[in-house]
Amino acid sequence: MIEMTPFLDRNSEKPLYMQLSNYIKQEILSGRIKSNEKLPSKRSLAQYLGISVNTVLAAYDQLSAEGFIVSKPRQGLYAAVIEEELEFDYPYSQPFLIEEEKETNRVLIDFNSGKVDLVHFPYAIWRKLTIQSLYEDQGELFYNGNRQGERVLREQIAKYLFASKGVRCSPDQIIIGAGTQMLIGLLGMIIGKEQIYALEDPGFHRTRMVLQDLGVRTIPIDLDSDGINLSKLKQSNASVVYVTPSHQFPYGMIMPISRRMELLKWAEENDGYIIEDDYDGEYRYKGNPIPSLQGLDGKGKVIYLGTFSKSLIPSLRISYMVLPPILLERYRKHFTIYKQTASRLHQQTLYYFMKDGYWQSHLNKMRTLYRKKHALLMSSVEKYFGKNVNVIGADSGLHIVLEIKKQIGEAPLIESAIASGVKVYPLSTYFHDTQGSPDSKILLGFGGLTEFEIDRGIQLLKAAWGF
Amino acid sequence: MIEMTPFLDRNSEKPLYMQLSNYIKQEILSGRIKSNEKLPSKRSLAQYLGISVNTVLAAYDQLSAEGFIVSKPRQGLYAAVIEEELEFDYPYSQPFLIEEEKETNRVLIDFNSGKVDLVHFPYAIWRKLTIQSLYEDQGELFYNGNRQGERVLREQIAKYLFASKGVRCSPDQIIIGAGTQMLIGLLGMIIGKEQIYALEDPGFHRTRMVLQDLGVRTIPIDLDSDGINLSKLKQSNASVVYVTPSHQFPYGMIMPISRRMELLKWAEENDGYIIEDDYDGEYRYKGNPIPSLQGLDGKGKVIYLGTFSKSLIPSLRISYMVLPPILLERYRKHFTIYKQTASRLHQQTLYYFMKDGYWQSHLNKMRTLYRKKHALLMSSVEKYFGKNVNVIGADSGLHIVLEIKKQIGEAPLIESAIASGVKVYPLSTYFHDTQGSPDSKILLGFGGLTEFEIDRGIQLLKAAWGF
């Protein structure tokens, strides 16, 4: 007789027959029970395992229905012939390796600006709320939800945005989506692909590439110490401008109120739009909060973009945009064909997380934590580099720019860091024309690192760069 | 005392107290229980409903924790004042109503082709696997995952596609995304926006609109009884063609092997691409399975698209595409900037679901179920309409087309159905030129309806249309 040693758990939620049929299925799939091998009779198996004949019968029925076993008249049950795995005849034989995956193996400390602190994420609460969402409204959550995103979550977002950013909107104006890129693609179509889009230079390369992939014309606009250069913007023939006023990416300046007012005036006079991307505005270390452009806008010229990727966790894939009425109307007329892309379960869980006050506590906790990490980063840079570097954009956010006062190119800086097990990031990525990027600057994100790693990383960089 | 008539189902998986608290929540939100209205004491409510005092207590605790009811000392419990949305100082005062949401209130039986059977979805197993995923790899799952989608899931998909569709691919060629629309947008950019795309006419309107929104030129191609008309395709200057060979949408024909071979030859001769959208190919009721175009293709000319929206649940937002090597190379070169949009938790859960054999069992179960529903639909149509209608495309999938042999336009057919509480769907949506659509045809989806609803729905339609 075939040897079978299934672990059957009588306390499991899964019925015994299912446990048994799954076990046999695995044995067949793995080849431990071979094709055409005879299975024990239900009586002998029941006796052997100490379970009822009906349980074995139910398991065999299940396996039979699924085609894993076949009955031969007057002979009994046999394992079916299971088709062999795929490997043998892929039409394309070359392996498709992703290069970065190899590279990261060597990195010990990664100053990736996209990473956030996950050690302090409230896993237990998040799990509890996920499970709560899973049990509630059986079925309901498994259908496609509202295409703008779950109404209850949009209500929470509207309240939060009003209280913490001065954003004035109704939940109706909010459109949720699986990531900012996806929303910018949609937004580009709503505003219009015939428009000309002015972008901060340097600025978010992902926004630039999404817009360019859409076929939209983009114009790079220099920065000055207050953010996007307004006279350059005025000289351009752009009608839409994309800015990161809470914390310019990558240089980190915070746009002062005067510049914000000028920008709004520009939009009004040019019948244009401002896309305000507040990707990590939750974390500021100096100065007073400045109201969002959206909150200062009385004419419906601003689209506010936010995300939970930096402030909560990246893998949720929940971002949102707030549309002014005219664009909302266009969305409602034409773009409702696009289905919601964010998970309904995660939206529901996030709704509970916000409603029950966990979101606010989490933000408070993370503010304190990032403030500490940020202070440590600054003191490590001071300790190891002293006057050999300048720090740029250190008032806010989860990254800084380091300017090295030595004639070393960007590529050698990154390569020598990697050789020492530290990953730092280029600034050239963020320039329209990579030729125009300064050679001696490097981007350091610190959100995902521990305090020890931050200090050790900076120390390793000092040695790597020969200071 | 407030009148309460909740339907409490003791056989439901949802505990009674939860059913009760949900009911009261709805009553408060809908205004049927007014702000500050006194709630019955727990004793009197328990007696009235014939349930235990503890159940009522638990429900009240829940409502209280969620802020729906408040306790006034020595007076009892009162419905809370539910905030009238943020109305107070929105800068824009017009209400943004979504019209369809109102309309659906009146519909009793909805023949929506996008709905699937959720009654038989294995909730308990799915929950268990979700919880298992939540507990495993703490932290890991909260970071952004692989941008093509989780490797383990792609492996399962590759195996499944080979075994059930004859699709030959390595997991490296699979790109997962939050919905087919999102993937078609990405694919349009990878193949190129300068290409001309031929589309089945009638065909999926969402594909057409995504491509048109991208700025791509699309050409409608008529159908014949075997699917897309190949001589028309050859006369066009299209270099890419989008087809639904397993079950043409909406007409339902299955493309025979001969047409498939011709189509592949066309692609080879024109150095073109075929987008094969297998949106519901899991369910066929007649004939033998025909290998996918991708499986027949030896030249890397086919992009295979699949989704779990029809075969599992829509709200997962997990679809995928299989790229041939040349397109994969382009994706790897330029489009890796696009982050993964599908939830990593859901991907992980789906991986377990497939690996542990639940996916195969679920498919088998659903096949049997949909076969029964389909047979019932056909017999109901026969019973109530007899020779007054033709059924089109009944060999496969979760919808049919009904041709009514009477001079009634599409709009009146839909409106009179709605007046009888039945929602049926237009065919004109799927035509490039809505003028070209036939007047007397209607789309009926049956996946989400019970057998009783299907029969009752067809009966109501007979009366509504005056047969």
Brief synopsis:
Two copies of one chain form a homodimer. Chain A has 467 residues and is of the alpha/beta class.
Provide tags for this entry:
Aspartate Aminotransferase, domain 2, alpha/beta, Aspartate Aminotransferase, domain 1, 467 residues, 40% helix, homodimer, 17 strands, seven-stranded mixed sheet, four-stranded antiparallel sheet
Q: How does CATH name the architecture of the largest domain in chain A? A: 3-Layer(aba) Sandwich
- Shape, per Cα inertia axes of chain A: globular
What kind of assembly state do the chains in view correspond to? homodimer
- Side-by-side strand order of the widest sheet of chain A: 4-12-11-10-9-5-6
What's the CATH H-level superfamily name of the largest domain in chain A?
Answer: Type I PLP-dependent aspartate aminotransferase-like (Major domain)
Number of strands of chain A: 17
Write down the CATH class of the largest domain in chain A: Alpha Beta
- Mean pLDDT of chain A, rounded to whole units? 86
The name CATH uses for the topology of the largest domain in chain A is Aspartate Aminotransferase, domain 2
Q: Radius of gyration of chain A, rounded?
A: 29 Å
Q: What pair of chains forms the biggest interface?
A: A-B, 88 and 88 residues
Largest sheet of chain A: 7 strands, mixed
Q: Structural class, from secondary structure content of chain A? A: alpha/beta
Helix content of chain A: 40-55%
| Portion in strands of chain A | 5-15%
* Total of DSSP H or I helical runs spanning 4+ residues of chain A: 16
Number of domains of chain A: 3
Give the N-terminus to C-terminus distance of chain A in angstroms: 73 Å
Ranges of chain A with pLDDT <50 over ≥5 residues?
A: 84-105
